[in-house]
Amino acid sequence: MTTLLDVRDLKVRFALPKPSLFAPQPFLEAVRGVSFTLERGRALGIVGESGSGKTTAAMSTIRLVPAAGGEILFDGEDLLQLDDEAMRARRRDIQLIFQDPYSSLNPRARVVDIVREPMDLMNIGDADSRLARVKELFELVGLRPDQLNLFPHQFSGGQRQRISIARALTTNPRLLVCDEPVSALDVAIQAQILNLLARLKRELGLSYLFISHDLGVVRHLCDDVAVMYLGQIVEQASREELFDTPKHPYTQALLAAAPSLARRKSKGYVRPLKLSGDPPSPINPPKGCAFVDRCPLAQDLCRQEQPVLKPNGASQVACHFASE
Ligand SMILES: Nc1ncnc2c1ncn2[C@@H]1O[C@H](COP(=O)(O)OP(=O)(O)OP(=O)(O)O)[C@@H](O)[C@H]1O
């Protein structure tokens, strides 16, 4: 396996309005030292509750949100060190798919123009080759050639997501960042789009950074999974390892909340833990473990010392007392 993306100690913080002129600048710590690797041809799912920092981590990985620190090695080159022009050139390799295809597609443009636009903006090929590529991509994503001149409102939600995917593929990217790409779709349509993404990954050797709050969706598509909690990764493992033997009490609670995903066999013991309460505020986050107030394993050490990700079996887990 070769590594496409190697993110090290990524930090993102947002400046908040000052309560008064002379008060210190308050910050919201949205991503607090996140590290992960994504191998070529694989899909890494990032899961976690709303507000855990999934979107911010992914957007800062591709420099759509500025990072406050860290390294983002794409093919060995640190994206944070690139000037704007070099970064623009890199954008060909990295494309985005959003949750709501309708709001990301220009309602007044014909879909042929929508799909072609990235090639126009990046000056890829001539008019004929661009049109040929749009037709090819239409077929690849399961749209018909006679639909080329229609407008977005003439398509269903699932078809609109196919249009977004075709558009994202025009530049021959190597990495697709998918932010809740099927959350707005009916369950049956979700499966179709996930199957399409899985096929494209196989056929084109694409890598995905796949953000979702839905563990079922992640299990369908992703090879590896990172679980985020208050701006940090608390567990990272292969799909099998994560769903069969979840180790962090937060991962166990997430799985226990989705009984259809918990393993039938006793191999992975999933504590019947119910999550109550909310995560702490990302403004002045706690010094120790952020999960401590909701955790059945919590001890004094957890309040004093932040656990770091370390190997636990075949997984990486940030917990002082995680099950082995
Ligand atoms: N532009 C911003 N300014 C200030 N705070 C922000 C901004 N964008 C995000 N945040 C905060 O950063 C934290 C992480 O948000 P983020 O959207 O990355 O989480 P998420 O896990 O993707 O959640 P969701 O699934 O709801 O999108 C949250 O506390 C959010 O309120």
Automatic annotation (TrEMBL):
Location in the cell: Cell inner membrane
Keyword set includes DNA repair: no
Gene3D superfamilies noted in UniProt: P-loop containing nucleotide triphosphate hydrolases
GO CC, one annotated term: plasma membrane
Membrane topology (UniProt): Peripheral membrane protein
GO MF, one example: ATP binding
Pfam families registered for this protein in UniProt: ABC_tran (PF00005), oligo_HPY (PF08352)
ATP-binding listed as a keyword: yes
Domain of life: Bacteria
Coiled coil: none
GO biological process: peptide transport; transmembrane transport
Main location as per UniProt: membrane
Segments forming domain ABC transporter: 7-255
InterPro entries: AAA+_ATPase, ABC_transp_ATP-bind, ABC_transporter-like_ATP-bd, ABC_transporter-like_CS, Oligopep_ABC_C, P-loop_NTPase
Keywords: ATP-binding, Nucleotide-binding, Transport
Family: Belongs to the ABC transporter superfamily.
Protein name: ATP-binding cassette domain-containing protein
The species this protein was found in: Phaeobacter gallaeciensis
